[in-house]
Amino acid sequence: MLLAIEQGNTNTLFAVHDGTDWIAQWRTATESTRTADEYAVWLSQLLSMWDIKMAALNGCIISSVVPQSIFNLKNLSRRYLNVEPLVIGDNVDLGIPVRITKPSEAGADRLVNAIGAHLKYDGDLIVIDSGTATTFDVIAADGAFEGGVIAPGINLSLQALHEAAAMLPRIAIQKPDRVIGKDTVSNMQSGVFWGYVSLIEGMVARMKAEWAKPMTVIGTGGVASLFEGATDSIDHFDADLTIRGLLEIWRRNAHLKTT
């Protein structure tokens, strides 16, 4: 069985694949100081609830945008799974061209998404990943990562608004009934929600105009589902984009696995 770990700045996903299907997925808050032993205790408890033995995990692939956590995640695999993990950006061949000025600067999550998107969708693509940051990535028809856009994520913007303005409360993100709010909370909800819809629509339109060829737009990430039904700029919402990419990378590099 394969343990796939996808670590973002806010949350970390652990998923188990049995060779045919994803059979379990769990999320935990990203904490860069969490040790391999702490991860192991947490993971073993969850595995036991699904009647999965830790010893059954004989492969591990890691994608992380938190450099200070990678050491502990590697040690989790080495100590408790007895396997050398495949790490995106470290010892893994992605099998795709990275057509940007400095390929080493491309985030692991963005490259994994590129592979996951190209596997399922034809033609030129835009992948919108809504997480701590909102990224807009262009994947060419041949699967190449062509670059993109990075903007603050919706939660980050909401947090900054609350922390920088003493009179503005911390609020939950939700789609307001109307654009013009009648109180402070509805004003903030409208500004954040419809502001991000406008960001998506405007950025997609500009990217398509610059690319000058038809493009399919895929939304993914922790808060992507918020925008489903709110805009026609996103063609597909795909929650499994990242783990699909991780599984494909594992399969392309399985010969590197050591026990």
Automatic annotation (TrEMBL):
Asked if the Swiss-Prot or TrEMBL record annotates the protein with the keyword Mitochondrion, the reply is no
Q: So where does ATP get bound?
A: 6-13, 132
Report the main location listed first in the record. Answer: cytoplasm
* Record localization: Cytoplasm
Q: Does the keyword field hold tRNA processing?
A: no
Binding-site residues, K(+): 129
Q: Which residues bind substrate?
A: 107-110, 184
Please state what class of enzyme this protein is. Answer: transferase
- Give the matching CDD domains: ASKHA_NBD_PanK-III
Q: Which residues form the active site?
A: 109
Annotated GO molecular function terms are: ATP binding; metal ion binding; pantothenate kinase activity
Reported EC number(s) for this entry are 2.7.1.33
Source domain of life is Bacteria
Keywords of this entry: ATP-binding, Coenzyme A biosynthesis, Cytoplasm, Kinase, Metal-binding, Nucleotide-binding, Potassium, Transferase
Q: Name one GO biological process term.
A: coenzyme A biosynthetic process
Q: One GO cellular component from the entry?
A: cytoplasm
Q: Give the InterPro entries listed for this entry.
A: ATPase_NBD, Type_III_PanK
Instruction: Enumerate the catalysed reactions.
Output: (R)-pantothenate + ATP = (R)-4'-phosphopantothenate + ADP + H(+)
Cofactor(s) this protein requires: NH4(+); K(+)
Q: How is the cofactor bound?
A: A monovalent cation. Ammonium or potassium.
Describe the function of this protein. Catalyzes the phosphorylation of pantothenate (Pan), the first step in CoA biosynthesis.
Give the quaternary structure: Homodimer.
Q: Which family does it belong to?
A: Belongs to the type III pantothenate kinase family.
Listed name of the protein: Type III pantothenate kinase
Which organism encodes this protein?
Answer: Brevundimonas abyssalis TAR-001
Instruction: State the gene name recorded for this protein.
Output: coaX
